[in-house]
């Protein structure tokens, strides 16, 4: 049997998935956790990949492994010195310390110029703002930077001995234009103060090299890799009209598009996908972890939390949570905190609080769907994925809050599966078609979803004047 290996190095964990190239069926899997926090030593990702690789027994699969590829959390700033040693912990996509730099960059050039240059408008998540923070706050570290890459580029280096990236991940840096597939090095010069070496941007089907002997899988071909959201799109074999809503550490809403989608409001980032097309995307910092935080507050596990949310009134008895617990990116409120409104003596029960958390995850995702539709991206149905989609309360409420049909694909690690699919492409020259199975489908029903949307929009406007 020929086997390919896909890796998902995400914010909270690293997952390794080996599949049969012919069928896409799972052969082996392993995972390892990443530490909490928004700044991480990239060496930790290498160690977690090693643990997950061993847990899946990849080395034992020997010569059957013909390819591997990495999809990883986007945007993280991996800045290394001439010896490839990080000069600073990698600042992750959800680290908002560079919010002032992002605002300054937008004020300096203006939103239209940014959209023209890189098809997005800087917020604290994007790599260039983090480099600007480093130059401003840690000039000695910045002066030692020889190469800048992203989390997946770093893992490509560990797997092959060479830096490389792809256009999906490069498009999240704010110094790469996905319409011309060129780095905009003048933006690095202007906002970082110099132009470090940058990983070559490989075509979607290209090889990044071969696995180094330490990975013990017979020098298999390594694919270009990609950002994790492009990985999910590839794993789901996403078609136009289908929109992914991923409720993971981040909440993301995206579709594939043959042409770039431009949004000078900055909410939609005009990323590239992993097939040569585009991936307009909105991302939230607060998503599945809002449920975990709610469960911790109520001192219950996730299963009991779900039971509570299912036992509440559909509209949480009027409770509305603005879920900006870790600051927020969409809307761009880096310093925001959460707000609970609509409390009465009657509705303050654990069931309604749990339900309010579920609705608080769904409401910003519904805003994002409306924004995509407003830009002309067809929104025919939603594919709901990510750890948070395991919540029955959430999946049953999603269609009513979104106002569009929702399908929940069979539970799989779609980011890692997308990476495996790309690995097969690099190893065989052909992008396999494995298909996908839908586990459950939901239609929008009832009118409570519209009420919940109105209350959320009113609360957001009242608290943040948006
Ligand atoms: N049954 C569940 N109910 C609610 N949240 C869940 C459930 N199972 C997992 N999660 C949450 O899903 C998140 C992980 O989702 P995942 O998609 O794997 O993350 P990532 O985006 O980092 O890859 C965690 O925050 C976890 O608490
Ligand atoms: O910042 C974004 C997308 O722009 C996030 O989606 C990150 O890519 C992190 O992903 P997860 O850890 O949630 O998978």
Task: Please tell me about this protein's structure.
- The protein has helices at 42-55, 99-109, 111-118, 127-137, 139-143, 151-160, 167-170, 185-191, 228-236, 288-298, 302-311, 350-374, 392-402, 414-428, 448-464; strands at 3-9, 13-20, 26-33, 39-40, 65-72, 78-80, 90-91, 147-149, 165-166, 176-177, 182-183, 201-202, 207-210, 221-223, 226-227, 242-247, 251-254, 269-272, 278-284, 320-322, 339-341, 381-385, 406-409, 438-442.
- By secondary structure, the protein is α/β, with parallel strands linked by helices.
- It folds into two domains: 3-227, 2-Layer Sandwich (Nucleotidyltransferase, domain 5); 237-404 and 436-466, Nucleotidyltransferase, domain 5, CATH 3.30.420.
- Strands 1, 2, 3, 5, 13, 14 and 15 form a seven-stranded mixed sheet that branches.
- Strand 1 and strand 2 form a beta hairpin.
- Helix 1 crosses helix 6 (151-160).
- The protein is globular, with a radius of gyration of 21 Å.
- The structure holds adenosine-5'-diphosphate (ADP) and 5-O-phosphono-D-xylulose.
- Adenosine-5'-diphosphate (ADP) is lined by residues 10-12, 248-250, 288-289, 291-292, 302, 386-388, 390-391.
Compact overview of the structure:
This protein is an alpha/beta fold. 36% of the residues lie in helices and 21% in strands. Strands 1, 2, 3, 5, 13, 14 and 15 form a seven-stranded mixed β-sheet that branches. It has a seven-stranded mixed β-sheet with strand order 18-19-17-16-22-23-24, sandwiched between helices. It has a two-stranded antiparallel sheet with strand order 4-7.
